[in-house]
Amino acid sequence: MAKPDKAAAIAELEEKFRSSSALLLTEYRGLTVAQLTELRNALREHATYSVTKNTLARIAAKNVGMDYLVDALKGPSAIVFVTGEAVDAAKILRDFAKENDKLVIKAGAMDGKLLDAEGVKALADLDSREVTLAKLAGAFIAKQSQAAALFAAPATKMVRTIDALREKQEKAA
Q1: Max CA pair span of the chain
Q2: How far from each other are the two terminal CA atoms of the chain, in whole angstroms?
Q3: pLDDT digits 0-9 by tens, 58-114
C-alpha cells in the first residue's frame, strides 16, 4: 500500500472510531466469505463490520486517543463499528459466535473504556433500549394505578359506610 493510500485509510479509520458509539473486536480466522457476508448482513442496521490492517488501526486508535485498543489489535482482527445500539450489535455477535465457533470475540470499547471478551458478552446479556424503556413505562403506569387506587380508597370507604348506615336505619325503622 502506498503512503497516500495508507494516510487515506488511517483517516477513514479515525473517522469511524470517532463516529462510533462502541467498537467490538473479533477474530475471523477460518470463516468463509459466505459466513462473513451473513454476519455483515445481520449487523447492517446497527454497525459495520470491517477487516482492517492492525498497524493502520493501531495508528488511527492512537490518533483519536484510544490507546487502550492497541494491545487488543493483534492477530487477524475485524472491527465492528457500532452506529446503533451497542447491546443489539453485541447480541448479534454473540449469537453468531455460538453458531460459528471460528468467530472469536476479542474485546470491545465503549464510553472510553476497554471491554474484555467477557465484558462484551455481558453487554450482550443486557436488555435492549426498547425493552428497558418499555419496562420503565410499565413501572410508571403501575405506580400511577396504585396511586389512583390509594386516592380513591377513602371515597369508596365513605360510600360503603354511608350505605351500611342507611341499611341499618332502614332495618331499625
Answers
A1: 108
A2: 107
A3: 888 888 888 888 888 888 888 989 888 888 888 888 888 888 888 888 888 888 888
